[in-house]
Specification:
Helix content: over 70%
Oligomer: single chain
Shape: globular
Strand content: under 5%
Number of strands: 2
Largest sheet: 2 strands, antiparallel
Distance between the termini: 46 Å
């Protein structure tokens, strides 16, 4: 075997055995140009050596490297050499049977490779399939693979009738050794069914692959990509999203699967996620780089053109990742891609004598979205935040959160219809009735008041009616409220000023003072100057309002409006944007601001009680609850919120209960009253549905519901709510909520067994989580990601996340999590084949666990460390070294047993008594197996018997462990005692299991074996 430090192409001489070993090693290398270069060098060495069998093996190695590295167009020339060598030497080779199989198998690749290169004449392609059929018949293989190749040629040429004929023959022929694996066959068959318009049939064919019942090197990645558009057409959006998340993750590093990448980009456009499509391009620049197989590359370019065209038509001027390692203006890249497409389609059409290829490409690029916007969950690129999520639910304020309307997807637009001016909907309505209804809604603070006043304005304009000054003032107030809701502060201030002028002109002094207070607050919000206090100015307005009210010139509502403005201003001063250098000073200022806020709320409540205005009293109770929550005492907010809800009901304003229910859901969640939190959250959603005109940050309530339902074990409901929260947060630019909701969604998916989906979400969202969430939450996210990756058998990735989480947890006050993360990292590293790194992780975990009251996990970790250490004995050269390692291993097992025995006898772990008993039996069982593995079978019996006794005491819960341990005892008896004793032991074990209502499968099988 050559030295790993010496590249193959630099060796001047090889032995046959060295070349065989090098060829075998090359086949396990990652796909790509480097592997192809090494394989080519080995082929040159094989040619120099002159051994026909090694030459054939080397040709196979190069061909496979080309196929896996996206260079399949290079293979046919080498395959022709391979056939000549096979015809000349095949019958004389030592490994003729295997090489005959492999040579005939590669025939299928060559047909596809020839078809995919437009310079290869069709006659050559057909002739190659004919030769494939001849050789298959001579070798005794069936025709199923031949029919599949003829189908592919007809499909490529657009000959639907011939394609259907060969498709039928393909399905009718029996499977044999030359048939593609079932996953690959189902992929091609399903794509044909989908192209023919039968998406359901396609999904039935793909189900076994998608559900991991069948797989191969390229599957399920290719099938998941192929399923995306059919699932969108079937409106099975959740499945489409899941297949995108899982499938795109599986494509990483597989540049040869360009068409699958293209289908994910196509899916992004068709699901209204063009921005995500651009991110995929940015993450995979290598897809533009040669070498590439022309047909596959053309399909990829078609999907890229679809994406770019949608952005250009939407007016985008962005720069996007493209070929030559640089970013391109989107229109320029589209022009470049179209040029390449035109060249490739022209060459294919000229070769084929049909326009089938160019027609397919044109149809691909002319698609429009199938769903306007399907949230994909993966974290988008960082966006400017317009809402702070410092608390789980935002405080009530005069300012809206972000605009409610999501941006339209950058899909291909349809032609606009002319906008027709609608007829007056109130033409038959008495104007006085319309105005009266508007006044009623205004007085009730109804969410529909603004729309009603706009109807009044339209009707007055069309009928030539001039509104009185009071009505003009109210209309301006409503329009200002709408501007505030949209965060258009400049317009709001201007409209409130107009309202003040109208009221003053109409000698409505009380209302003018009330609106002046609102205007002052809006001006402060417009300037965003938190240091500028309006306390004195508002106090003066309040004093004026009181005087006017005493004289009968102001209503109680006017006084309360000023009081409410004072409370809002006091709360505004609590929202200090930047922490000062002096933390103590910051806290003192913050507490002082909260005290002023609380005092202003008490004043509002007192006035509301004095004037008997329940709606204003309800607002005061809601603010009291907010103060309690922001001071970290959510349980104190519950009675305040219940009081607010009762008062709004008394005031006959059910729509006003939206915010109290939002806050109540949060309070209940903090108190672990999950069912109550869910009821309150759903009540908020119901109210928002009944009165949709209200400002409603639905994402926050959805996040509360996700946590509440997840805590109740209803993970499907939790995932649904979290998904809604993610979509809302992304649309409104709330990155901290988006990160938190993705964490909840990933956890729900993990609990539902959707590890691939959860892993994809967490991997994409981790940067945002690190930026916006606290460190314990990030550690939990990494922990969850590691668990998912481990179950997906990505042990290196799992180990990395465990180690990163453990590093972050080093400074946590409670070190239990740190210890478990280190232990989990050890298990992942061991599974990844990194024993030395695993040992270091287990060592760290043992040190931490020895200082903690956790005997069960300490014993488990000691055993894991023992097994890693035992593995080192296989690498030692001398028997004395092996004995030293075994002694160390036995000491670790002895410590594990001692830890458990001490815990069992201490009385401090009564609740874990059964678990401790199980771990003691497990320790003995592993000790017995250790002795068997160390070729010390004669010393294993005492441990095996103790293990069997311990597991028997725990029946029926330990049925499988007991079955295994008793079989081991019987085996030892048969080997070192007597067969009769072994048989008797097995019969006793079977009887014990029967009595416990469980099966002893292994004992029964071993008993039958001994009887034979």
């Amino acid at each position: 075997m050559p030295s790993t430090s010496e590249p193959a192409y630099q060796r001047s001489s090889w032995t046959a055995e060295e070349l065989r070993a090098a060829l075998e090693a090359t086949e396990n290398e990652p796909a790509g140009r480097a592997r192809s270069v090494r394989a080519e060098a080995l082929l040159a060495a094989a040619d120099k050596l002159g051994d026909p069998e090694i030459q054939i093996c080397a040709l196979h190695t190069v061909i496979e490297a080309y196929e896996r590295g996206g260079e399949s167009f290079r293979s046919p020339v080498l395959f022709s050499r391979l056939l000549r060598l096979w015809d000349r030497h095949g019958k004389t080779l030592r490994d003729a049977s295997r090489l005959e199989y492999e040579t005939h198998w590669v025939f299928k690749w060559m047909t596809s490779d020839l078809l995919s290169v437009p310079e290869v004449p069709l006659a050559t392609v057909h002739g190659f399939v004919d030769e494939m059929e001849r050789r298959y018949r001579l070798a005794g293989y069936g025709m199923r693979a031949v029919h599949a190749q003829r189908f592919r040629i007809a499909e490529h040429l657009g000959d639907s009738a011939q394609a259907e004929t060969h498709f039928g023959r393909w399905l009718a022929a029996e499977r044999d050794l030359m048939s593609d694996c079932r996953a690959c066959e189902h992929l091609a068959q399903g794509m044909w069914r989908a192209d023919c318009g039968d998406d359901l049939a396609a999904m039935r064919l793909w189900r076994p692959t998608i559900e991991n019942e069948i797989s191969c090197l390229d599957e399920p990645a290719s099938t998941l990509a192929a399923s995306l558009k059919p699932l969108l057409r079937l409106r099975r959006y959740d499945e489409a999203r899941a297949n995108h998340l899982r499938g795109y993750r599986l494509l990483r590093g597989h540049v040869e699967l360009r068409s699958a990448f293209g289908r994910h980009i196509e899916f992004c456009v068709l699901s209204g996620n063009g921005a995500r499509g651009l991110e995929i391009l940015a993450e995979n620049r290598r897809l533009f780089d040669p070498p590439f197989e022309p047909s596959d590359y053309l399909e990829f370019l078609s999907c890229v053109a679809l994406l770019l065209r949608s952005h250009v038509r939407a007016g985008s001027t962005a720069t996007v990742a493209g070929p030559r390692g640089r970013d391109w203006p989107v229109a320029e890249l589209l022009e470049h891609v179209r040029s390449e497409i035109d060249d490739l389609t022209g060459r294919f059409d000229a070769r084929n004598g049909t326009d089938a290829v160019s027609s397919r490409v044109a149809a691909m690029m002319d698609q429009t979205w199938l769903v306007a916007e399907l949230p994909l969950i993966v974290a988008p690129r960082p966006a400017v935040s317009v809402v702070s999520a410092a608390s789980a639910v935002p405080a009530v304020s005069a300012v809206s959160e972000a605009p409610r309307h999501p941006p339209k997807p950058p899909a291909l637009p349809t032609q606009r219809e002319p906008v027709l001016e609608s007829a007056d909907p109130d033409a038959d309505t008495d104007f006085d009735d319309l105005l009266a209804e508007a006044r009623r809604l205004f007085d009730a603070a109804h969410p529909g008041a603004t729309k009603m006043w706009e109807r009044v304005a339209v009707a007055a304009d069309r009928r030539g009616i001039e509104l009185d000054l009071e009505a003009q003032g109210r209309l301006a107030e409503e329009r200002a409220a709408d501007a505030l809701d949209r965060e258009d502060m400049e317009r709001a201030v201007r409209l409130l000023g107009e309202a003040v002028e109208r009221y003053e002109e109409g000698e409505l002094q009380g209302r003018a003072v009330a609106v002046k207070a609102r205007k002052l607050l809006a001006e402060a919000l417009q300037k965003k100057n938190q240091e500028l206090s309006l306390e004195d100015a508002l106090a003066a307005l309040y004093a004026t309002a009181r005087v006017l009210q005493a004289r009968g010139l102001a209503e109680p509502e006017d006084v309360l409006t000023v009081r409410r403005a004072q409370a809002f201003e006091a709360r505004r001063t609590t929202e200090i944007s930047a922490d000062p250098d002096d933390e103590a000073d910051f806290e003192a200022r913050r507490e002082s601001a909260f005290d002023r806020f609380a005092a202003s709320v008490e004043a509002l409540l007192a006035d509301a009680v004095e004037f008997d205005v329940p709606a204003r009293a309800a607002a005061a109770h809601t603010m009291r609850a907010e103060i309690a929550q922001r001071r970290g005492r959510p349980e104190e907010s519950v009675p305040e919120l219940l009081a607010a809800i009762a008062l709004y009901d008394r005031a006959e304003r059910p729509w006003a209960n939206l915010h109290p229910n939002m806050l109540l859901a949060q309070a209940y969640l903090a108190a672990d009253r999950d069912a109550d939190a869910e009821r309150a959250g759903l009540a908020a959603l119901d109210i928002a549905g009944l009165w949709p005109e209200q400002r409603f940050p639905a994402g926050y309530t959805r996040q509360v519901l996700a946590n509440a339902t997840g805590a109740q074990g209803r993970y499907a409901d939790s995932a649904e709510h979290a998904l809604e929260a993610v979509g809302w947060a992304d649309r409104h630019g709330v990155p901290d909520l988006a990160a938190s909701a993705r964490h909840s969604l990933a956890f729900a998916y993990e609990q539902l067994g959707r590890d691939a989906d959860a892993a994809a979400i967490l991997e994409s969202a981790l940067p945002a989580m690190i930026e916006h969430l606290d460190e314990p939450t990030v550690v939990n996210a990494r922990w969850a990601l590691a668990r998912c990756l481990g179950r997906l058998e990505d042990y290196r990735g799992a180990a990395e996340q465990y180690l990163l989480a453990a590093a972050a947890a080093e400074d946590f006050p409670q070190q239990g999590g740190h210890a478990m993360l280190a232990a989990s990292a050890g298990h992942a590293l061991r599974a990844a084949g990194l024993p030395e790194e695993a040992r270091r992780a287990f060592d760290r975990a043992v040190i931490l666990l020895r200082a903690l009251p956790d005997p069960i996990n300490l014993a488990k970790t000691l055993r894991a460390l023992a097994w890693v250490a035992f593995g080192e004995s296989e690498e030692t050269a001398h028997d004395s070294e092996r004995e030293d390692v075994l002694d160390q291993v036995l000491l670790l097992f002895a410590e594990a047993a001692q830890v458990l025995e001490t815990a069992e006898g201490s009385g401090d772990h009564e609740r874990d008594a059964q678990v401790i008993a199980y771990e003691l039996a497990e320790t003995d069982d592993q000790l017995a197996r250790l002795h068997l593995n160390a070729d010390l079978s004669d010393k294993a019996m005492p441990y095996a018997e103790r293990a069997a006794s311990g597991f028997r005491a725990l029946l029926p819960h330990s049925a499988m462990d007991y079955d295994f341990s008793e079989q081991m005892v019987a085996w030892l008896l048969d080997r070192y005692g007597s067969r009769d004793a072994a048989v008797e032991r097995l019969r006793e074990a079977i009887a014990a299991c029967t009595e416990a209502g469980v099966e002893a499968v292994r004992c029964v099988a071993f008993l039958e074996q001994l009887a034979d």
